[in-house]
Design goal:
Elements: E1 2-4, E2 13-16, E3 19-29, E4 37-44, E5 50-56, E6 60-63, E7 67-77, E8 80-84, E9 91-94, H1 96-99, E10 111-117, E11 120-125, E12 129-137, E13 151-155, E14 160-163, E15 172-176, E16 182-185
Antiparallel strand pairs: 1-6, 2-3, 2-6, 3-4, 4-5, 7-8, 7-10, 8-9, 10-11, 12-13, 12-15, 13-14, 15-16
Family: Belongs to the elongation factor P family.
InterPro entries: Elong-fact-P_C, NA-bd_OB-fold, Rib_uL2_dom2, Transl_elong_fac_P/YeiP, Transl_elong_KOW-like, Transl_elong_P/YeiP_cen, Transl_elong_P/YeiP_CS, Transl_elongation_fac_P
Domain Translation elongation factor P/YeiP central: 68-122
């Protein structure tokens, strides 16, 4: 489907020269003088090469239709990450560069949204929050209430984050999967 370049957003998939590209960022630039342009950064799905393109905002680009479906995470191996479609039990393998920075937050049986083009996964969306255990942090300081000062901690998935002073080693906490930041103590 052909659309104008200024309507392209992050996460869209474009077809150019017979290859598929996932949009990493799209910015419309309106200089004081001259023609407005759309600056689009994309990653080629087949080999992960990043490219940057500049189009006039009225240029036509080929946008590919993407289907989003829920999948359950099964496991990771040397070939990539394996997910299962809950209704048909079809398994799909997703390349490591598609999962990217989300990899440490994937947990067994976690339900994620995969953006699929035909049978190829082009993008992944994790739940907003994940519950993890603190495996290493400074000891709890007696009498210190939840103040604005945070201390460093290492989570069970290896990610470093900052937690309030009252959180100790072995405590399960809820973090944002987007950046690993502390949300609250887990209620389980």
């Amino acid at each position: 489907m052909r659309v104008i370049a200024s309507s392209i957003r992050k996460g869209n998939v474009l077809e150019q020269d017979g290859k598929l590209y996932v949009v990493l960022s799209a910015e419309n630039i309106h200089p004081g003088k001259g023609t407005p342009v759309s600056q689009i950064e994309m990653r080629r799905i087949s080999d992960g090469v990043k490219i940057s393109e500049r189009y006039k905002t009225t240029d036509q680009v080929e946008k590919v239709t993407i289907e989003e479906r829920n999948y359950t995470f099964l496991y990771e191996d040397g070939e990539g990450f394996h997910f299962m479609e809950p209704e048909s039990f079809d398994q799909v393998q997703v390349a490591k560069d598609v999962v990217g920075n989300s990899a440490p937050y994937l947990q067994e049986n976690m339900v994620v949204k995969l953006s699929m083009h035909d049978t190829t996964a082009v993008a992944i969306t994790l739940p907003q929050r994940a519950t993890l255990e603190v495996v290493d942090t400074e000891p709890v300081t007696k009498g210190q209430t939840a103040s604005s000062s945070y201390k460093p901690a290492v989570l069970s998935n290896g990610v470093r984050t900052a937690v309030p002073p009252h959180i100790g080693t072995g405590t399960r906490i809820v973090v944002l999967t987007e950046d690993g930041s502390y949300v609250e103590r887990a209620k389980d």
